[in-house]
Amino acid sequence: MNPEMLFPPGTPVCVRETIERRGRPIQVETVGVVEAWEELPTGSWYAHGKKDRLQLRRLVLRKVDGEKTVLVVDDGTTIARLEPAKS
Fold this sequence. Notes:
mainly beta; 5-stranded antiparallel beta sheet
C-alpha cells in the first residue's frame, strides 16, 4: 500500500533506513511527525526516468527539536507509526 495513505501529514513516525556502507549495513533511525510527501527528480544527469530524471519519493519530517529533515524513502526504509505524545 502507498505510504502516503498509511502515514498522512500529522502522523508521528519512526523511520529506519538501512544503508550499505563498505559491505556492512548501518541502520539510522529518525523520529518525527510527517509534514509532507514529495516526489522530486534527483537532479542527476545520468539517472533517467520521467523527463530524463529519476523521480525519488521523499518524506519531510519535523523532528522533536523542531528541525525539519527530508528523507528519501526506498526499499531499505521502514516506517512505523508511533503513539501521539500525551499532553
